[in-house]
Write a structure and sequence with these properties.
There is one protein chain. The chain has a single domain, classed as Beta-galactosidase, Chain A, domain 5 (Distorted Sandwich). Helix content is about 5%, strand content about 40%. It is built from two helices and 24 strands. β1 and β2 form a beta hairpin. The radius of gyration is 18 Å and the shape is globular. Belongs to the glucose-6-phosphate 1-epimerase family.
């Protein structure tokens, strides 16, 4: 594996994206005629073992601290090892519209593999497909290449660029139950539509597999987020107090994005039998 910080500039007549081989990380995506839709901070730090802020981090094989026996499992690193791995790029399929990455269990250090929900005997082949045009489609496919069931959590932790999150609304979640991660994971329900942001932290795991619309009043646009293979959606913005404490964000950058994530985690974690595969996909477009 080539452990270099290669960043690929995918450009065509419909849009462009920057994608890092480290983490198979979409850093930005800009459809033609629009401001960037996938957000990246003013300063992007590349350091082995450290996750990249912004863009679309690939979360696998656990989410957050992991989950076991009804509570956080205390796993390290947070959000798994995929986002800090050097993925292989499939050069045979690389075009001005498409890049395909692969990661195998043999690429992972034994001490990290031991942290997977299925333990150190876990065997997998993961493919991450990024298609760039006037839409951005990202698909993570995980195949169980071992002899025992494979359990994992996964997500596309997508940062969407907005003019000001306090002038942003998300529709498509009314009457949807969620876990409030900012309030000790208490179960709640979205009783109002749309979801709005007031500068306090929003960190919620919605039991939602539907399409969401992100209405950005400041930039006068609506971003549509579609997905498949994901029964949950995480919506996250750290808010002013926590956002200004995040070390790799500049002061005030917290209001330039909202994360809308395609997720399988906690009680919705995926288990696949030997030889089976599971795919989770997210498509973003500007309406």
């Amino acid at each position: 594996m080539d452990n270099t910080y290669t960043i690929r500039n995918i450009v065509n007549e419909d849009g462009s994206a920057l994608v890092s081989d480290y983490g198979a990380h979409v850093l930005s995506w800009t459809p033609k005629g629009h401001e960037p839709v996938v957000w990246q901070p003013k300063a992007v730090y590349l350091s082995e073992g450290t996750a990249i802020r912004g863009g679309v981090p690939v979360i696998f094989p656990w989410f957050g601290l992991g989950y076991a026996n009804g509570e956080p499992a205390g796993k390290n690193p947070r959000h798994g090892f995929a986002r800090t791995a050097f993925w292989h790029v499939d050069r045979d399929t690389l075009t001005d519209r498409h890049v395909l990455y692969t990661l195998d269990s043999d690429d992972v250090a034994p001490e990290l593999l031991a942290e997977t929900p299925s333990g150190s005997d876990s065997k997998f082949h993961a493919e991450y497909d990024v298609a760039v045009s006037d839409t951005l489609t990202m698909t993570l496919t995980v195949e169980n290449t071992g002899d025992a069931p494979l359990t994992f959590e996964a997500a596309m932790h997508t940062y969407l660029h907005v003019g000001d999150v306090r002038c942003t609304q998300i529709s498509g979640l009314v009457d949807t139950p969620y876990l409030d991660s900012a309030d000790d994971f208490k179960p709640k329900e979205q009783t109002t539509s749309p979801l709005t942001f007031d500068g306090t932290m929003v960190d919620r795991i919605y039991q939602s597999e539907g399409t969401l619309l992100v209405h950005d009043e400041a930039l006068h646009r609506t971003i549509m987020v579609e997905k498949s293979g994901s029964p949950q959606t995480v919506v996250w913005n750290p808010g002013e107090e926590a956002g200004n404490r995040i070390g790799d964000l500049m002061e005030g950058e917290w209001h330039d994005f909202v994360c809308v994530e395609a997720v399988v985690n906690r009680d919705s974690a995926v288990t696949i039998e030997p030889g089976e595969a599971y795919a989770i996909s997210q498509t973003i477009r500007v309406k």
